[in-house]
Specification:
The complex is a heterodimer of chains A (116) and B (522).
Chain A: H1 3-19, H2 28-46, H3 56-75, H4 84-104
Helix pairs in contact in A: 1-4, 2-3, 2-4
Chain B: E1 19-21, H1 50-59, E2 66-70, H2 92-95, E3 98-99, H3 104-109, H4 112-125, E4 131-136, H5 138-142, H6 147-157, E5 162-166, H7 176-190, E6 204-210, H8 216-226, E7 230-236, H9 241-244, E8 252-255, H10 258-272, E9 276-278, H11 284-298, H12 301-326, E10 330-333, H13 339-343, H14 346-351, E11 354-360, H15 365-374, E12 380-383, H16 387-397, E13 401-404, H17 406-414, E14 419-421, H18 432-447, H19 450-455, H20 473-477, H21 483-486, H22 501-506, H23 515-521
Parallel strand pairs in B: 2-3, 2-4, 4-5, 6-7, 6-8, 8-9, 10-11, 10-13, 11-12, 13-14
Antiparallel strand pairs in B: 1-12
Classes of the chains: A mainly alpha (116), B alpha/beta (522).
């Protein structure tokens, strides 16, 4: 991964970690759903693509995605100069990094509890 | 993020994995304090018990209920003074507290008869109250009293009453957090779905994990009502027992304190398909974003934006007056659980405070993940500290103030560190735009209180200056401020009232036409 891409992912990550709560649900499966649901919708919004809102859960993901996309656009001026494939590639990298920090590399021993 | 070993705890090596320093370039995957574990023998924890977590944190803020502890009278201590979850029904649940007063003879011969007699006596003493919660304690759990059976018996004899039983004795978990879990699950299992509510809006929420500390719930309720949202229930501050039985009919669960109440949100999501939206009610920007998110969910974000614009314009000059005087002050943010992450970033961003340490008494590792992610580099994060560790940390970090509970707060005072009560507040409410300014004012008054200047002098050895006059808070806080800031005409101190909640209770709200009605008219 290029240094520039890594740096940009870290900037996005810094915002999520400081300002958001949705990535820290209490179980691994729940975090995976949250990361997937919100980041995929954020990517669609950043790429001006259609966002499906078929269920209340979809709508809930979308709400956080709207706020995240707005914050990224406002704080990260370099986003405006990126093409759709570049944004998708960057968001994919962000998704992988967030999954690592909050799920796969997390030291939180409660994540794998079967019950809430 | 290296683990931090306290000098005072070298004799308890297990403690080393309970504290870390947030280092540069390090992540949550490098080190994370252990959490939600049984207290280590030899360390004197400041935690509460699982009974306390169930009753005193979550159960008792319900307002129209007789809350009775089935156990020794001492278990029911926390009412006036120690708890400040007020309510709009003249604080019934705070004014009256009940215990069955179990004694040695009941332990020997059983206390079920005593319990039944107490229940009936309490209902007779308060004929207008028809709802009751009963909390098991260690003693009555160990002797095996069947509280559910007694409650059922009474409900059959008195058909107009309803009783909820919470079996969460003190030993049912490592800390009060175990009790939070138990009462969440017991409530959804036994009570949710037993009342059908009247729906009065197109936008219906449960407001979950909010305990109306000094009026926080009423502040938030005001915003939701201004947006035309029906709060079906609040779990549990200022909440009504029967409203909480109808939680299954909400469109959205708005979750404030995930530590104490995520369980019921998760279960409502699984059982009834109601989504969970986590919010931050503290701080201008986080609160604004939270209202906006709720607005977006229902398609009424313009109503949220109107509130954000009005409130920000009204209160920002006052917050900034305090920010100018608090910038760079060092804080140990040492609450029980969720405020560690609700406040860690926003007191830095909006008040200029530097958080040098975060701790949690009963939080889980997930709370530490959130708190460490939000605080600045160099902060010391501690799980379940003991008193000596707290003292060692304060001596090392030299904070200007700490935000914590009464017990560690009084310890801090002994080494001349002012504290604010993070659980029950000083002059709250602290939620909402105005509340946030009140919090800033309390911090200012704590740090710059003239009494702390005087208390730093030790009359047994220091020379007491008799040629200098008394310094007011303003003289201390403004001494090094640039002239332009000191006399900035755009900034001002808090101008709200002593009691900001009374007015909220008198307020009327706009009627928003319901979508169904509009469609019928078209």
């Amino acid at each position: 991964m290029s240094d520039l891409k890594t740096e940009r992912i870290e900037q996005m990550l810094d915002y999520i970690m400081k300002k958001c709560l949705w990535q820290f649900h209490s179980r691994a499966w729940d975090r995976r759903d949250q990361n997937q649901g919100i980041l995929s919708k954020t990517t669609q919004l950043l790429c001006d693509e259609h966002v499906a809102l078929e269920t209340p859960a979809d709508r809930c993901y979308w709400v956080d995605a709207v706020c995240l996309a707005e914050a990224f656009r406002e704080r990260l001026p370099w986003l405006a100069g990126m093409s759709v494939p570049e944004i998708k590639d960057l968001m994919q990298g962000l998704h992988e990094r967030l999954d690592y920090l909050t799920i796969d590399g997390s030291l939180n021993e409660e994540l794998t509890d079967q019950m809430y | 993020m290296p683990y931090h070993e306290f000098e005072c705890s070298t004799c308890i090596p297990e403690r080393k994995k309970h504290a870390v320093v947030k280092g540069p370039g390090e992540t949550l995957a490098d080190a994370l304090p252990l959490g939600y574990l049984n207290t280590i023998p030899g360390t004197i924890s400041e935690r509460g018990c699982a009974y306390c977590g169930a009753k005193h944190v979550i159960g008792t803020p319900m307002k129209d209920v007789i809350h009775i502890s089935h156990g020794p009278v001492g278990c029911t201590y926390d009412t006036w003074q120690t708890k400040r979850y007020i309510s709009d029904n003249d604080n019934f649940q705070l004014k009256y507290t009940f215990a069955t007063d179990v004694k040695e003879k009941h332990i020997v011969f059983g206390a079920e008869k005593l319990l039944k007699q107490n229940i009936i006596e309490a209902f007779k003493a308060h004929p207008d109250i028809k709802r009751m919660t009963i909390y098991q304690t260690c003693a009555t759990a160990l002797i095996g009293d069947d509280i559910d059976a007694i409650a059922q018996e009474v409900m059959e004899e008195l058909p107009d009453v309803d009783i909820f039983v919470c079996n969460s004795p003190g030993f049912a978990g490592p800390s009060q957090s175990g009790g939070h879990h138990k009462i969440n699950i017991a409530w959804i299992k036994n009570k949710v779905g037993t009342v059908e509510p009247e729906i009065t809006s197109d936008y219906v929420i449960n407001y979950v994990g909010e305990y109306n500390i000094q009026g926080d719930q009423e502040v938030m309720q005001d915003f939701f009502k201004r947006m035309g949202i029906q709060i079906l229930s609040t779990f549990t501050g200022n909440g009504s027992y029967d409203d909480l039985r109808a939680m299954h009919k909400a469109h959205l669960n708005v979750l404030e304190c995930a530590r104490s109440a995520e369980y019921i949100c998760n279960e409502l999501r699984v059982k009834y398909g109601i989504p969970r939206l986590d919010i931050d009610g503290f701080g201008f920007e986080p609160l604004g974003n939270s209202l906006r998110k709720v607005g977006l969910f229902f398609g009424i974000e313009d109503r949220a934006q109107k509130i954000i614009d009005e409130e920000t314009a009204r209160w920002k000059p006052e917050l900034d007056w305090y920010k100018a005087r608090l910038t760079g002050k060092k804080v140990c943010l040492w609450p029980g659980g969720s405020k560690l992450w609700h406040w860690a970033h926003v007191i830095h961003d909006e008040m200029g405070l530097d958080v040098v340490s975060v701790y949690t008494k009963f939080g889980h590792q997930g709370d530490m993940e959130k708190g460490i992610a939000r605080c600045e580099q160099g902060a010391l994060a501690i799980d379940d500290p003991n008193e000596l560790e707290g003292l060692e940390a304060m001596n090392r970090l030299q904070p200007d103030i700490i935000f914590t509970g009464k017990r560690p707060g009084e310890v801090a005072k002994k080494i001349r560190v002012p504290y604010l009560n993070a659980h029950a507040y000083h002059n709250g409410p602290w939620k909402g735009w105005e509340g946030w300014v009140r919090f800033a004012r309390d911090i200012y008054n704590g740090i710059y209180s003239p009494i702390h200047e005087l208390s730093k002098l030790d009359i047994s050895k220091d020379e007491i200056p008799t040629d200098k006059g008394f310094k007011t808070a303003r003289m201390i806080s403004d001494a090094d401020l640039p002239e332009a800031v000191r006399n900035d005409p755009n900034l001002r101190r808090y101008t709200g009232k002593y009691d900001m909640v009374a007015e909220l209770r008198e307020r009327t709200y706009p009627e928003f036409a319901r979508q169904g009605a509009q469609e019928a008219a078209a």
